[in-house]
């Protein structure tokens, strides 16, 4: 059975202006040791999905429906005490901005030790040794000295390493990484990604990588979920998504990637703006921006359906198969020299 | 049911005992007006006594305290709980023998009087007191009144170490003067002439706080700014009352709170008078006046408007007289609250006029603007009106400004804070035309008013008290004449001079003679008013 | 660290000199003659001159200021260099040593202010934190209304009302007055219990204004801190809410409170004037008012020196404490 199975997850926030449907029917699963990438624009609901799984949304004015089965246990109906047991222990999460995600008035060591002692009844010395071990593993130089430093004494990249150390310190089965490299420069990005991959292998953890960067997806994901406007637009194994994308949004994402081999004056962009989640468009939520929009798109929200008979590759679009194959091939023709090797 | 409640009984017993213990502790510590051995608790609101050193103390409160702790050559008696406003011998066997030329006074000191530490009181005690007063290190204010004593000024000016004119031989004390002074005896009744034991009362420019006293009480302790304690003089054998064993005075209390605390008996009274003047009307209604709890008496003090005769507007007699018609005395007095004083048109308080007193030289019922304009000829001019800000000064300035404007004057006001107004007004040549002022007698003689406040010959460059800058040769001569008299003729002379000055020259517009309003706690008896000091007697109070 | 302290000390001295100089000059400019007041109204100009000489007011202002500074210094050059105890001179009005006056008044003000501090924090911390945890709840709305009332109510009005109702009418507490903790005055209440008993109403009166301000501040700080990313991290680690509140939220949210506390106490030691007036507590504020009304410049300047020093010391202490508790400051 998959490690994490999310079924028809919905998260609604009631605000002064109305109900915001931040996640509106999202399903995916993650297998043990696998990496799932969730990609989409800001506001697509990718972060909220994972926060919902962890139970980290503010409890007031939040409604969550559906199921998030972790080893068969539904996290959405679990008690607060049970969730606290799981968080930081079985499922760990790291966040986007390492500059603000660590408490500035406690040492890094204290915060790492806290992560351990929250879940294990061990003497402080042992927890500290463990913290030291993790710091070395994530590549912090002179870890014995640095363990007693404060977060502001570390650079952004180093802090993110510390966050990763803190997340993995209890050998979680699942690591959720919410845009861990967005706030870092490109070189550091590569280092962090490499680190995550390495540790994933060492610890045999599953990883959910949330990002808006297709490059990151290509680098480390096994499976991909493309989200748009609180729904899943397309999902499937990474090679299928890259070699044979079957959704206009996905085409738009790919097409807007900068390329080395052609000269373009402007990057292709998807016209229009992401929709309001307060009053999403009727029918297919992408239809106002879709160059292929048809009448039916305006009325009926497409369901996820398999591509051909590949049950693992699903897409939600009214376009017929032929058109999609054609467009995919056109895009790929442009990409053929760059079809990325599997990691 | 019973099972659950079995422990509540002993618990509530313990609780009650604890509560009782706590209350007992607090009650034992809390000051009530009734404690064994009659300790009288007084509260002096908003102020401390200035000094308890007889050479330095120059305030009404100081006078009240020293009245209890001092033996003087002559004094006012409160024997039998009645106040005698005529001077009688105190430590002297009788009134002094005065030489024919009026320049030598000889006192015989009674034997057997002892200070509170057992030391005997002798003629030397008074010599020591006067020498101490004159000592340049002490800077005593009394030197302003004692120039007529032979050799006094030499000591002040460091030309001699002892006053040559004051000597003692055995039990005889002799005081020599350079000229007649009909007010000498009144001056000797001032607290500055308290008998002292020089060994226990050293020269100290800061003033001594405690010293042995030969009066019914002595100063047992003083914590500056906080508390003064008087205790009965164990050696006192005289006939003056000293009903409470101990008098404890707490200083610098809040006036409104003191009023409440007297009402509920925490303090017996405020020696300075009713601390909350706005309550006067209600107290009069509730307790009547001069019956049991609330007392009102006239004091030897005059509130007036000084009119600067050295400047153009009030250089004219007619205009000055007109002001005395235009001024609204009742309104000005009402600012001070109910029963605050008695309207007057004279310079001296009635007690200093020897019976020659006229309250109606000018209207006291209200402003008579038409008469004022008639007298002034309708003209006035510019008036710079100075006043000290406060609950009295500010409203009064408004009233007077209105009165003067009605009369045709062009009025500009200028305000000061505290005594700065006196410093500024004391500089000769200032631009003050009119200001509010007051004067309480230092001793019971008209010279204290006339010489200091209206004698043109005392005008100097600065530090003037003659705020009207009044200098009239005839008045000056009549001051000297009155000063040469003694006995009832003297007082009458002052009274006549008062009427003469106000009728013909009107350097002031007198407003009122202040009253003191006293408020005592329930169960406090023995209130006695002392007209000589303008305050209540502390030694006659007791708890019923 | 040493250099930091030395730099602060130099600034402190400069500030001190500036404040005292300004105070001195202001008094000099006021047209009030303390010698005449001290001498007595009947004094002749000659006598006034002598008193002026005794008081020292007949010297030029820079000489007076120099003497003033010389008195405050702990060292003296007269007859060789030697240590001496600093003193603040003598009052013009009653010739008492200003040191003595301050020595009497300061403990009363300190009792009022420090006790009031405890009470206002006891009120402000729980209410501020609870209001932040439950924004727009009934508790929050009630406490915010209370804050408005607390800030708007004048301590004099509050004090008079409270002492009248609770002291006079209901006899629950004394109406006014101060009971000395160690050395009760003769026949006056004293000792620890009476001291506290007499201070109950003054503490509450004094504390209300500050409590109101601090409730708002703590509420705002906690609400802001609750949204910080590291709080989310702590929850993601599986920390229980109590721990999140204690170790992560409060530890950060209350940092600015420390600075404000230091400053407020330093200032309040200068005299919680209104409360002292209403309850007959002869503290520094009361003494200042009395001295000002009488143009008693040595006392006013002496208290100014004392307050200036205490504010400077408090600020220095606050900076040091802040550096100790906030590691981001420490190492810069």
Q: How would you characterize the overall build of this protein?
A:
The complex is a heterotrimer of chains A (343), B (544) and C (332). With 343 residues, chain A is an alpha/beta fold. Chain A is 34% helix and 23% strand. Chain A has twelve helices and twelve strands. In chain A, helix 6 runs parallel beside helix 7 and helix 10 packs parallel to helix 12 (321-335). The two termini of chain A are 25 Å apart. The model of chain A is unreliable at 337-343 (pLDDT under 50). Residues 14-36 of chain B have low confidence and may be disordered. Chain C has two domains: 2-83, no CATH class; 98-330, MetI-like (MetI-like fold, Orthogonal Bundle), CATH 1.10.3720. Chain C has 332 residues and is mainly alpha-helical. Chain C has a two-stranded antiparallel sheet with strand order 1-2. Classes of the chains: A alpha/beta (343), B alpha+beta (544), C mainly alpha (332). At the B-C interface, helix 2, strand 8, strand 10, helix 7 and helix 13 of B face helix 2, helix 3, helix 5, helix 7 and helix 8 of C.
The name of the CATH topology of the largest domain in chain A is Rossmann fold
In CATH, the homologous superfamily of the largest domain in chain C goes by the name MetI-like
Reported by name, the CATH topology of the largest domain in chain C is: MetI-like fold
> What order do the SSEs of chain A take from the amino end to the carboxyl end, as H and E?
EEEHEEHEHHHHEHEHEEHHHEEH
| Major sheet strand order of chain A | 6-7-8-3-9-10-12-11
Give the number of helices of chain A.
Answer: 12
Query: Regarding CATH, which class of the largest domain in chain C?
Result: Mainly Alpha
Strand content of chain C: under 5%
Identify the CATH architecture of the largest domain in chain A: 3-Layer(aba) Sandwich
Please tell me the total number of domains of chain C. 2
* Count of domain modules of chain A: 2
Approximate helicity band of chain C: over 70%
**Major sheet strand order of chain C:** 1-2
Name the CATH superfamily assignment of the largest domain in chain A.
P-loop containing nucleotide triphosphate hydrolases
Beta-strand percentage range of chain A: 15-25%
CATH first level of the largest domain in chain A: Alpha Beta
Point out poorly predicted stretches of chain A: 337-343
Q: Report the order of strands and helices of chain C.
A: HHHHEEHHHHHHHHHHH
What structural class results from the helix and strand content of chain A? alpha/beta
């Amino acid at each position: 059975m998959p490690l994490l199975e999310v079924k028809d997850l919905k998260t609604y926030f009631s605000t002064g202006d109305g109900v915001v449907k931040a996640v509106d029917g999202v399903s995916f699963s993650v297998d043990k040791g696998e990496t799932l990438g969730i990609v989409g624009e800001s506001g697509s609901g990718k972060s909220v999905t994972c926060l919902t799984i962890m139970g980290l949304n503010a409890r007031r004015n939040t409604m969550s429906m559906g199921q998030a089965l972790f080893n068969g246990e539904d996290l959405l109906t679990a008690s607060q005490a049970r969730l606290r047991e799981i968080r930081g222990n079985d499922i760990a999460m790291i966040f986007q901005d390492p500059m603000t995600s660590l408490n500035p008035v406690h040492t890094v060591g204290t915060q790492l030790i806290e992560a351990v002692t929250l879940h294990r009844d061990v003497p402080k010395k042992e927890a500290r040794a463990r913290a030291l071990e993790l710091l070395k593993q994530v590549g912090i130089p002179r870890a014995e000295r640095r363990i007693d430093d404060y977060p502001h004494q570390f650079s952004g990249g180093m802090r993110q390493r510390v966050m990763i150390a803190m997340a993995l310190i209890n050998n979680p089965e699942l690591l959720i990484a919410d845009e861990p490299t967005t706030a870092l420069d490109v070189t550091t990005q590569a280092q962090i990604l490499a680190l995550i991959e390495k540790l994933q292998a060492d610890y045999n953890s599953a990883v959910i990588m949330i990002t808006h960067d297709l490059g990151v997806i290509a680098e480390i994901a096994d499976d991909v979920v493309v989200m748009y406007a609180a729904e899943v637009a397309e999902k499937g194994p990474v090679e299928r998504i890259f070699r044979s994308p079957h959704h206009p949004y996905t085409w738009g994402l790919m097409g807007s990637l900068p390329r080395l081999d052609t000269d373009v004056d402007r990057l292709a962009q998807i016209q229009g703006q992401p929709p309001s989640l307060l009053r999403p468009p009727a029918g297919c939520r992408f239809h106002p921006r879709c160059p292929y929009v048809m009448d039916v798109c305006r009325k009926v929200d497409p369901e996820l359906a398999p591509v051909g008979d590949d049950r693992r590759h699903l897409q939600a679009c009214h376009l017929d198969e032929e058109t999609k194959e054609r467009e995919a091939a056109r895009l790929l023709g442009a990409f053929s020299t760059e079809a990325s090797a599997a990691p | 049911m019973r099972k659950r409640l079995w422990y509540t009984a002993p618990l509530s017993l313990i609780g009650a005992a604890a509560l009782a213990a706590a209350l007992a502790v607090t009650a034992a510590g809390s000051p009530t007006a009734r404690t064994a051995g009659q300790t009288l608790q007084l509260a002096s609101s908003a102020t401390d006594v200035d000094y308890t050193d007889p050479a330095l103390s120059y305030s009404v409160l100081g006078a009240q305290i020293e009245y209890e702790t001092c033996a003087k050559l002559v004094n006012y008696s409160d024997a039998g709980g009645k106040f005698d406003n005529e001077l009688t011998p105190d430590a002297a066997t009788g009134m002094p023998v005065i030489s024919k030329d009026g320049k030598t006074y000889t006192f015989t000191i009674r034997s057997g009087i002892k200070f509170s530490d057992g030391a005997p009181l002798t003629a030397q005690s008074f010599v020591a007191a006067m020498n101490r007063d004159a000592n340049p290190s002490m800077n005593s204010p009394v030197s302003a009144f004692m120039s007529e004593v032979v050799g006094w000024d030499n000591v002040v000016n460091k030309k001699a170490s002892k006053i040559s004119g004051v000597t003692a031989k055995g039990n005889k004390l002799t005081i020599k003067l350079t000229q007649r002074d009909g007010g000498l005896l009144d001056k000797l009744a001032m607290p500055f002439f308290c008998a002292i034991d020089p060994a226990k009362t050293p020269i100290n420019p800061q003033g001594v706080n405690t010293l042995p006293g030969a009066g019914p009480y002595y100063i047992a302790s003083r914590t500056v700014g906080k508390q003064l304690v008087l205790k009965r003089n164990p050696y006192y054998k005289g006939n003056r009352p000293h009903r409470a064993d101990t008098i404890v005075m707490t200083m610098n209390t809040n006036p409104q709170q003191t009023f409440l605390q007297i009402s509920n008996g925490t303090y017996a009274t405020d020696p300075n008078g009713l601390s909350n003047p706005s309550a006067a009307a209600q107290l009069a209604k509730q307790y009547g006046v001069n019956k049991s709890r609330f007392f009102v008496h006239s004091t030897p003090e005059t509130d007036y408007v000084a009119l600067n005769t050295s400047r153009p507007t009030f250089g004219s007699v007619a205009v000055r007289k007109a002001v005395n018609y235009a001024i609204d005395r009742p309104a000005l007095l009402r600012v001070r609250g109910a029963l605050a004083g008695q309207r007057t048109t004279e310079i001296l308080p009635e007690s200093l006029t020897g019976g020659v007193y006229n309250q109606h030289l000018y209207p006291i019922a209200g402003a008579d603007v038409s008469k004022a304009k008639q007298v002034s000829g309708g003209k006035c001019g510019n008036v710079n009106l100075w006043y000290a800000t406060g609950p009295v000064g500010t409203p009064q300035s408004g009233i007077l400004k209105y009165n003067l404007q009605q009369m045709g004057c062009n009025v500009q006001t200028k305000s000061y804070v505290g005594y700065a107004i006196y410093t500024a007004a004391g500089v000769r040549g200032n631009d003050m035309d009119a200001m509010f002022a007051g004067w309480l007698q230092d001793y019971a003689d008209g010279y204290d008013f006339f010489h200091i406040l209206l004698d043109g010959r005392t005008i100097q460059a600065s530090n003037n008290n003659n705020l009207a800058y009044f200098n009239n040769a005839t008045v000056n001569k009549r001051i000297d004449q009155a000063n040469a008299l003694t006995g009832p003729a003297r007082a009458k002379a002052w009274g006549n001079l008062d009427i003469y000055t106000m009728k013909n020259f009107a350097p002031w517009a007198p407003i009122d003679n202040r009253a003191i309003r006293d408020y005592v706690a329930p169960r406090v008896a023995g209130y006695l008013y002392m007209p000589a000091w303008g305050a209540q007697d502390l030694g006659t109070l007791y708890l019923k | 660290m040493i250099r930091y302290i030395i730099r602060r000390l130099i600034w402190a001295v400069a500030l001190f000199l500036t404040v005292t100089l300004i105070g001195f000059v202001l008094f000099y400019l006021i047209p009030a003659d303390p010698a005449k007041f001290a001498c007595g109204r009947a004094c002749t100009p000659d006598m006034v001159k002598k008193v002026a000489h005794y008081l020292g007011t007949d010297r030029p202002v820079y000489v007076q200021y120099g003497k003033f500074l010389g008195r405050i210094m702990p060292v003296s050059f007269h007859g060789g260099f030697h240590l001496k105890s600093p003193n603040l001179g003598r009052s013009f009005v009653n010739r008492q040593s200003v040191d003595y006056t301050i020595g009497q008044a300061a403990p009363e003000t300190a009792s009022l202010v420090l006790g009031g501090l405890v009470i206002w924090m006891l009120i402000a911390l729980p209410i501020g934190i609870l209001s932040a945890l439950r924004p727009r709840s009934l508790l929050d709305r009630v406490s915010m209304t209370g804050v408005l009332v607390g800030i708007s109510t004048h301590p004099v009005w509050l004090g008079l009302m409270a002492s009248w109702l609770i002291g006079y009418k209901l006899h629950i507490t004394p109406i006014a007055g101060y009971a000395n903790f160690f050395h009760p005055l003769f026949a006056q209440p004293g000792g620890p219990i009476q001291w506290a008993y007499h201070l109950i109403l003054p503490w509450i009166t004094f504390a209300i204004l500050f409590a109101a301000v601090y409730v708002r501040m703590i509420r705002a700080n906690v609400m802001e801190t609750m949204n910080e990313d590291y709080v989310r991290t702590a929850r993601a680690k599986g920390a229980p809410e109590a721990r999140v509140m204690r170790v992560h939220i409060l530890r950060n949210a209350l940092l600015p409170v420390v600075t404000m506390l230091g400053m407020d106490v330093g200032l309040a030691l200068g005299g919680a004037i209104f409360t002292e007036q209403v309850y007959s507590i002869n503290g520094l504020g009361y003494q200042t008012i009395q001295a000002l009304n009488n143009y008693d410049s040595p006392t006013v300047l002496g208290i100014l020196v004392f307050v200036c020093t205490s504010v400077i010391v408090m600020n220095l202490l606050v900076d040091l404490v802040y550096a100790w508790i906030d590691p981001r400051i420490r190492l810069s």
